[in-house]
Amino acid sequence: MAHERRLISNGNPMEKIVGFSRAVRVGPFISVGGTAPVGPDGKTVGVGDVRAQTKQCFEIIKDALERAGSGMHDVVRTRVILTDIDDWKEAIEARKEYCQDVRPVDTIMAVSRFVNPEWLVEIEVDAFVADAAC
What we know:
Layout: E1 5-8, H1 14-19, E2 23-26, E3 29-35, H2 50-67, E4 75-82, H3 88-99, E5 105-110, E6 121-128
Parallel strand pairs: 4-5
Antiparallel strand pairs: 1-2, 2-3, 3-6, 4-6
């Protein structure tokens, strides 16, 4: 049985230019790509504050999941990507606010940098909507 492919946008003009979506839902599966700490004005939220940036990433993710007919309760995997691995405790404290009850699997890793040097963190999640009609 073929599943509809649903593209979820958050209005970022780069989506069409570069060819990406904030999230993609196919059947019960939802993937949310690398989410940066950007506000509605396009500026970095929480410059220098990894906890504030992590929370902003999760707020964007939460919105994308809701647009896809889901929510944080369906998250099965998170990936926390940092520019400084020593910031992991602060990032995880923020992550707990969104994931404490659902307890998805998690990967924490560091990269040398992101496209915008103000970004200290990006987050990716995968979700599975268990009650979705397949």
